[in-house]
Amino acid sequence: MLALARELGTRADWLFVYIAEAHATDEWPIASSRFNGARGAVHLAQTRTLASRRAAAAAFARDFGLLSESSSSSIGSGSSNSSSTTMSGSSSSSGGAAVTVCVDDPERGEPFAEAFAPWPVRLFVLQKGKRGGGPRRGNGDGASLNDDECAATDAAATRAAAGAGGAAVAEPARVRFLSAPRNGGFIDLEPFADALRCAAADPL
Amino acid sequence: MAEAVATLEAQLASLQHQLAESKARARSSRACPLGRDDAAIPEATLVAMLQHEAQSRLNPATQQQYSEVEAANGDTSWMEVTEGLQRATVRAFGFGGSGDLEEAEAVAALRLAAPRYPEVAFWVRHNRARRGELTRNARVPAVALAPLQWAPDSIYPSGKDTVALEDLVPLDARPLAVVALSYS
Question: Which residues in A lie closer than 8 A to residue B73 (C-beta atoms)?
Fold first, then answer.
């Protein structure tokens, strides 16, 4: 993930949404340290208050270097209205990816989980367009697109937009990719990475 | 007379054949508790097996196994440990002694029973995984998120405790990669 963020730099912004624990000690404990390095197995009770979830998210962001203490403001394009920071490990120059960390508030009924069904982990690519013509590129079915396919999809969208008058009209944000819901097994990053690369390749 | 004997012998052979088929079906039914004969494992036994499985999953030794196999960071994960304890569970209840097939099918019956008893099967009760209604190209739902912390120069008023997801998507059409996860 960090490698992908470094690869794309400012061509994509990142949002980490901290959701309900997947394997809370008081629900479905699985003492796993698979992705936790030398910190050992994760033992966290379910976070049922905003404060506790923020605390868990802060620990996660700290341990995985999501937020850099040295840069507490957005250094991305500046076009998103977020309080974001530099992706750790990326250059501290303006080439770094802008990262925002939020939590899905359990005291408000976990609205993100309600709308996105993200548990236990899920990846999305969201994007606003400036052209008409509907879907531009990307592939939500998990198959990857190569560069040629990206270009072909873009060309088709451009033609469609031109046919519709080609007006550069701001579109609402749309879901360009969502990973398949996970129920066991490891998440496949490649379809997400491909979709993100496509979306970042030639912003509209 | 000879014809009568031949007829009786034919009928006997037919009955023997039917009996053999019936026995084969009965054996198959016992060996395959799913599908044709779902009641091969009594429901009460399945509940007891689920309780046994629940205790096994929470057992400190199992948790230690989970920890070790996950720490190895290999292809084997906690799911193989869980499969192992499910096999041990069905064996503890007398299934699987005569062959792997019977054990595998008893495990399958155990897994199928779990959703019927979420009050016992906490791994079902706390499984929030679902497909959801969102589709590709759908408009991003209006969702309010709670920022982890406010940057000193945040453009949002300090008193505001949520941010609209849509507002985090770059206006210049660059994509927003969204990673939804938890520590565990």
Answer: 34
Chain B residues with CB-CB distance to A134 below 8 A: 137
B78-92 helix and B43-58 helix, angle to the nearest 10 degrees: 140
Instruction: Looking at the complex, report in whole angstroms how far the Cα of residue A157 sits from the nearest Cα belonging to chain B.
Output: 13
Q: What is the mean pLDDT of chain A?
A: 74
Tens-place pLDDT, residues A33-72? 777 777 777 889 999 999 999 999 999 988 888 876 543 3
- What is the spatial distance between Cα A182 and Cα A77, in angstroms, rounded to a whole number? 32
Helix, strand, coil fractions of chain A, as percent rounded to 5: 30, 10, 55
Percent of residues in chain B assigned helix, strand, coil, to nearest 5: 55, 5, 35
Q: Does the distance separating the beta carbons of B162 and A105 come in below 8 Å?
A: yes
Q: How many whole angstroms separate alpha carbon B68 and alpha carbon B78?
A: 9
All structural domains of chain B with their residue ranges = 9-125
The DSSP H or E segment spanning B43 is helix B43-58
Q: Is the peptide bond before A181 cis (omega within 30 degrees of 0)?
A: no
Overall residue count recorded for chain A in this entry: 204
Q: Are strands B163-164 and A13-18 parallel, antiparallel or unpaired?
A: unpaired
A63 Cβ partners below 8 Å, 6+ apart? Answer: A36, A39
Half-sphere exposure of A81 (CA within 13 A, CB side): 10
Contacts of A3 (CB under 8 A, 6+ apart): none
Which residues are CB-contacts of A194 (< 8 A; sequence separation ≥ 6)?
Answer: A139, A144, A145
ipTM of the complex: 0.76
